[in-house]
Amino acid sequence: MADQNHKQNQTDDSVLNNNKHLYYHYRSEIEKQNLKTIICGDLKLFYETVCLYEKNKDNPNCADLYEHLKHFC
Prior knowledge:
Number of helices: 3
Number of strands: 0
Radius of gyration: 21 Å
Helix content: over 70%
Structural class: mainly alpha
Distance between the termini: 53 Å
Largest sheet: none
Mean pLDDT: 76
């Protein structure tokens, strides 16, 4: 029975390891660009709706996010 459980765990691990489409590293350049577009769009929307709101202008995290957006997006 222990051997059967061990074999099942190996199968589960190998399925995860062979499922390369789950990992960013194995994605095509088009997929990576699409992910970047989605992420940048969401970050810009967050910045525009939260950080530009009058009460949050002095939030130090907003300055960091703005720098990240300038360099990454």
